[in-house]
Design brief:
With 156 residues, this protein is mostly beta strands. The chain contains one helix and eight strands; from the N terminus they run E-E-E-H-E-E-E-E-E.
Amino acid sequence: MSFTISSNNQSNELGSAGISITVPAAPIFTDTEIVPGESIGPEDLTVTNNGTTDGRYYIFADWRPAAGTSAAGAQILADRLNIEITDDDPDAPTVIYDGSISGLIEQPNTGRALAANTSETLKLTVSLPNDVGNVAQNLAIEVDLVFVGQIEEPQP
């Protein structure tokens, strides 16, 4: 004789959560000419997590030669153009990244926390150091800042 026990749990639900990092599509900088020793900015950039859960985001620079500049020339400029990204804390701004455009890869290295349905404003400044000389003269690049989101890992 066989014996079977069954249990039927009704009304159980399982859902998913996600993050959605968005930034405005408009250009951040409208000044297209910069000379050694000059900086432009800071300009504001609002980052928003439209998702349903807390997350972290990382910033990358996707750059390429502009019209009239070779790939090698774009590399020279990307290695020398500096970008500084800070938060907008008026009392003690945190530097998120300060380095070359070409080095802006997965920054900050631990990600930046952003709760669900919140925004924060970043300040961006681009500069060309005094010591660049003529090597970067008449070179141009196009730069897209890419924001990649990751769901915040729960703490044990």
